[in-house]
Every structure is written in structure tokens, then in C-alpha cells.
Amino acid sequence: MTLGHAILLAVAGFVAGSLNAVAGGGSLISxxxxxxxxxxxxxxxxxxxxxxxxxxxxxxxxxxxxLSSDRAPVSRLVAASLLGALLGSILLLTTPASVFSxxxxxxxxxxxxxxxxxxxxxxxxxxxxxxxxxxxxxRVVQLGVLVASVYGAYFGAGLGIMLLAVLGSLMSIDLQxxxxxxxxxxxxxxxxxxxxxxxxxxxxxxxxxxxxVMSLVGGFAGARLARRLPPRALRAAVVIFGIAVTxxxxxx
Length: 252
Known about the structure:
This protein is mainly α. It has one domain (3-251). The chain is 82% helix and 0% strand. It is built from 13 helices and no strands. α3 crosses α11 (175-200), α9 packs across α11 (175-200) and α10 (159-170) packs across α11. It is globular and about 55 Å long. The two termini are 22 Å apart.
């Protein structure tokens, strides 16, 4: 790894940590940076999962109060998320790397569109929630979480938005509790995927070290800077970047 690559990954880790703290979508920055540093698509994906894991821990801990009253139904959803994460992790490492490489531009584009739609998703979810309703985790909710978890372990970018859409369309609890459930599920999915990739995946540990430290710093310090930017401008910049990355990947 060159010094230039190390600087690129450090900056990408910082920005990704900031984005994840503010609005999500950090992988749309960190994953392309790993590709630009010379990693193949599968090593870049598993390395990105391991590197950004600390941010999910912080997000879940921040909502531990909201989760305390929903332990039983959340436990059922966590079980579904772990099964989906296991399936997605196995799928990533057992299918040919060429298949994942061919899908990467479309996965990046899909994640970019999810990120662009986040305000609309949040508004729709907020509009239909009934504050204070009892939380239920029926089979349909578990199935939706299972499907989202397969995607989350297989690629991951935009997972939080997908979970918010799934949970918000099938459950009627207030938005703070919903965010707590989303963060708990994101942590469980990424923890299983991270452990699976550490044992079986082609993790590149130097990029992990650089990006994990900087994403943690970005989550604390960078979020303060990002909040000073107009939200629409920040979102537009990430969407434009995602579309540019998709274009480059399609025609490289």
C-alpha cells in the first residue's frame, strides 16, 4: 500500500464515519475508496464490513434505553437478522468473485438511490407510525428483516434505509423506538458478517486499521462538521458521487 492509498483510506474512513453518524450511506464513500486503493471487489467488501463495524456498536448503544422495553420482540427479529446475515455472508464468499464484481455497479447504484430516497422513506414512515403502540414481531416482519439481512451481509450499503422502510411499513411504534430496533438489527447483521469474514474472508487488515480508527474519529468529530452543511447539499454530493462511481465501474 502506498502513502497515497493510506491517506485516501484515512479520509474515506473519516467521511464514512461522519455520514453514518448523520444520515447513513458511509459505505458509498469507503467501499469505492478501497477499490481505488487496489483491492478486488470481494476483499474490498469484506474489509469495508470489518472496518466500519465499530460505528454500528456506537449506534446501537445510543438507543439502548429505547430497546429496553422491547427485548422479547427485538430478540425474535435479531434471530431472523442473524440467519439472513449468515446466508448473505455464505453467498458472498461461495459465489464466484466475477459474479459479485458484475453486480457491484448495480449494487452501488441501488444503494445510491436508497440514500437519495431516505428523506421520503423517513417521511412516509413517520406519517404512519402510532406513538406508544405495542411492538409486535410477526412472521411477515421477520421475513422482511430476513431478506434485508441477506442483502446487508452480501453488500451492506443502504442497509439502514432498507431496514427502516421494512420495519416502518410493517410495524406501528414511534420513530425513536423504530430507530433503536433498526440500529440493533444493523449491529447484529454486521457483527455476524464481520466475524464470518474475519474467519473465512479475504480481510485486508492494514486498511481495516486505518479506516476503523478514522471512522470512529469521524463519527465523533466529523458529524459536528457535517451538520453545519445544508442536508440537501450533503445528500446531493453523496448521490452524485455514487452515480459517478457506478459509471466508472460500468465502463472500466
